[in-house]
């Protein structure tokens, strides 16, 4: 189990040091900010949604390792997905880190965040990017806050 945990940390650390899709998206048609005051995480999620598909997704911001790695892995896993599929992955991830685990969604690498459920304060770090993505998709324009 401890080996497994080390592996998980390795993946999270890799995405923290080299965040994927960490840039502004000039042709984004959705853009939303999200804040987690408890930890100080700030994020902006950019989306290009066309024909019911997440054509492109990126983010910028500053935050802890968990929030940055989660945002990085989120962009990796949602890019190119249909909006319906992306929303299903969002729900699956939210359930995973809150311990509900009811989703039949195959979350692949995202399961590295399973351990977060043992640290309630970290759940907000892990889900910040996802809630921001979800709100942006729904056309929300007010910044998202976890508080
Ligand atoms: Zn955080």
What's the layout of helices and strands?
Elements: H1 2-17, E1 30-36, E2 41-50, E3 53-62, H2 65-78, H3 83-98, H4 120-137, E4 144-145
Helix pairs in contact: 1-2, 2-4, 3-4
Bound molecules: zinc ion.
Report on this structure.
The chain has 147 residues and is an alpha+beta fold. The protein has a single domain, classed as Sufe protein. Chain: A (Alpha-Beta Complex). It is 44% helix and 20% strand. The protein has 4 helices and 4 strands. It has helices spanning 2-17, 65-78, 83-98, 120-137; strands at 30-36, 41-50, 53-62, 144-145. The protein has a 4-stranded mixed β-sheet with strand order 3-2-1-4, covered by helices on one side. Strand 2 and strand 3 form a beta hairpin. Helix 1 (2-17) crosses helix 2 (65-78). The chain is globular, with a radius of gyration of 14 Å. The N and C termini lie far apart (33 Å). The model has no long low-confidence stretch (mean pLDDT 92). The structure holds zinc ion.
What key attributes describe this structure?
single chain, 147 residues, alpha+beta, Sufe protein. Chain: A, 4-stranded mixed sheet, 4 helices, 4 strands, globular, binds zinc ion
> How many beta-strand runs?
4
Individual helix count: 4
CATH architecture: Alpha-Beta Complex
User: How much beta, percentage-wise?
Assistant: 15-25%
Main-sheet strand order equals: 3-2-1-4
Helical content (DSSP H or I, runs of 4+): 40-55%
Secondary structure category: alpha+beta
CATH topology: Sufe protein. Chain: A
Bound molecule kinds, no repeats: zinc ion
Mean pLDDT: 92
The CATH C-level class name? Alpha Beta
- Ends distance: 33 Å
Contiguous uncertain segments of 5+ residues:
none
């Amino acid at each position: 189990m401890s080996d497994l945990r080390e592996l998980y940390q390795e993946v999270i650390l890799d995405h923290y040091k080299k965040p994927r899709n960490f840039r502004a998206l000039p042709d984004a048609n959705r853009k939303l900010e999200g804040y987690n005051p408890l930890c100080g995480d700030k994020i902006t999620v950019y989306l290009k949604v066309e024909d019911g598909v997440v054509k492109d997704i990126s983010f910028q911001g500053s935050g802890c390792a968990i929030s940055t790695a989660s945002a990085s892995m989120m962009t990796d896993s949602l890019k190119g997905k249909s909006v319906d599929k992306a929303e299903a992955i969002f729900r699956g991830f939210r359930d995973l880190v809150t311990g509900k685990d009811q989703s039949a969604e195959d979350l692949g690498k995202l399961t590295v965040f399973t351990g977060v459920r043992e640290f309630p304060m970290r759940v907000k770090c892990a889900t910040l990017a996802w809630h921001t993505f979800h709100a942006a998709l729904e056309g929300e324009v007010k910044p998202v806050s976890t508080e």
